[in-house]
Amino acid sequence: MATGTRKTGRKQEIPTPPPLQQDEVTPRSPAAEVVLAYLAGQVVAVRTLDPLVREDVPDSIHQMRVATRRLRSTLTSFGRVLRPASTLGAELKWLGDTLGTARDAEVMAERLRAGLAGLPKKLATGAALGAVQAHFEAAGADARAGVLEALDSDRYLRLLDDLDRLLARPPLTSQAGRPAADVLRPAVRKLRRRLRRRLHHAWRCPAGSSRDHALHQARKTAKHARYAAEALSPAFGPPAAAFATRMKDVQSVLGDHHDGVVARATIAELGRTGPADIAFCFGVLYQREAERALELEGQARAAWKRARRPKYARWLR
Fold it and tell me: Which residues pair with 82 in a beta bridge?
């Protein structure tokens, strides 16, 4: 396990990966050309972010996780074009989950600190903040150690090699040479329909854990739809980009909602295991998170109402 990485003490900007040298793609371009160009960009992003994650540059873990998720999502969404070994998706999930553990600790720590800061001073005790700090310092340190161990592993190096082989010798299907408009748009339409079904199911679920789970599943579908539309944006232009933006809006609100579900579980744990004098403080924080969840459900309905407007789906016809 690598132990020598540390924060540098200076703010660093995450560089934008260099543009890929590729021919311009259009809706009539071969489907494989569009998909492989997007995948290549995400592989470049993973390699660019690797040293920044090791140096603990702010937001680098998040960006590397997103690139990993985009790779896995694209391979899943466009199976009619590429058929890589099933192990590749599993290995991308492993890397994404490892990065996600560290990223989730960062997000949750900031959420709870902000929540405590928003409470009246007579409630937000230093002991409560100290309990949050202690909890997430330990969790964050363990998660970061796991990330560094993963990046130093042979398993990670094999994954990078597999991604390079995918681009160099793509496992194309018989559909890969057909126009992107004919092969790729149906995949996005399918994801849009799935998102509609999952959201309708979520709103029919009773408030509580069953609806929380259903909204979490809808969030994952919104994310897949967003990444699929992003992959097609170079070929289909602003209409695909606008659709991706609307899917991102839905995903973001539902992601905030899911973070609240996780936050309430963490708050409840801290309230149970911490000193009695801060239990009430965590109880108030828990209630605020529950109220925020209801607000976010309303925002999710509004985001989907905007996203489902016919103008955002015309390019999919």
Answer: 172
